Amino acid sequence: MTQRTRQIGGVTVPTLLYGTAWKEERTADLVARALRMGFRGVDTANQRRHYREADVGRALQAELQRGLLRREDVLVQTKFTFRSGQDHRLPYDPAAPVACQVQQSFERSLSHLGIDVVDSYLLHAPSVPQGLGKADIEAWRVMESFYDAGKVRFIGVSNFAPDQLLTLLRRARVRPAFVQNRCYASQGWDASMRAICAREGVTYQGFSLLTANERAVRSSLVNDIARRHQRSAAQVIIRFALQLGMVILTGTTNPAHMVDDLAVCEFELTVAETRAIEHAGT
Ligand SMILES: NC(=O)c1ccc[n+]([C@@H]2O[C@H](COP(=O)([O-])OP(=O)(O)OC[C@H]3O[C@@H](n4cnc5c(N)ncnc54)[C@H](OP(=O)(O)O)[C@@H]3O)[C@@H](O)[C@H]2O)c1
Hints:
Layout: E1 5-8, E2 11-14, E3 16-19, H1 27-37, E4 41-43, H2 53-66, E5 75-80, H3 98-113, E6 118-123, H4 134-148, E7 152-158, H5 162-171, E8 178-182, H6 191-200, E9 203-207, H7 214-218, H8 220-229, H9 233-243, E10 247-250, H10 255-262, H11 271-279
Parallel strand pairs: 3-4, 3-10, 4-5, 5-6, 6-7, 7-8, 8-9, 9-10
Antiparallel strand pairs: 1-2
Helix pairs in contact: 1-2, 2-3, 3-4, 8-9
The structure holds NADP nicotinamide-adenine-dinucleotide phosphate.
């Protein structure tokens, strides 16, 4: 049965990460609640447009001070976001070279989060829609230097296409540990990217599993399986994704759903059920 953690490069990584996007003034409360409920990984970004990284840090520090949680028990993941993905609330000087922007953004992340080491640091999206630009490689080199200096434990990417990941794998000195992507059922649950990840030893993190796949969530296939296991359709989709080998992001704002999402580690789909969902093409 898939557990709540897995080992990656000797580090214990939770298989369910609590996503902190779009929560605005509820961010700190929801992160605190998620940690109390049992989530052991949080995903954020130094991108004020969608995240309140400083509120994630406030909640994390408050929970650590309560003494029921140790820093090493929680995987903290944040991101560097290029200018095109930001609004006017920038965490760096836009006139500075890209390498300086990454440095400035990272220093601010450490300060927002109140930590010395970021467990996982992602390049939020490539700077260009196809291939990789000079800025992507420049940003990656700085991320590699954070790794060398022990300031991050993993580096990775997000919103990458398969060819972009392959290019990065060719050029990286420190290989990406994670790819975090929106996972569409209609694309075989990001089958081509997952295949590259499996071959290259990169861990795939899936987001929008429920929101991007409403047809799958509502399908009779998934709902029949849910009835058989006495679980919800949402739990079946999340469990399915775990059994495909993904690390899952969920940003639920509902405490009952937090319990449900964590409970996907308590049941198992059969191989036939997993195959059926994988190939339904919904
Ligand atoms: N790298 C990127 O560019 C990127 C982009 C988007 C998101 N992300 C990350 O991924 C995280 C998750 O984002 P997401 O796009 O997957 O959406 P999300 O914010 O997690 O939304 C999930 C939706 O599913 C519902 N839900 C969750 N668990 C459920 C359950 N057990 N039963 C019924 N409904 C349930 C939630 O409703 P309730 O709130 O009512 O439970 C919500 O409507 C974000 O917070 C962020 O950290 C990253």
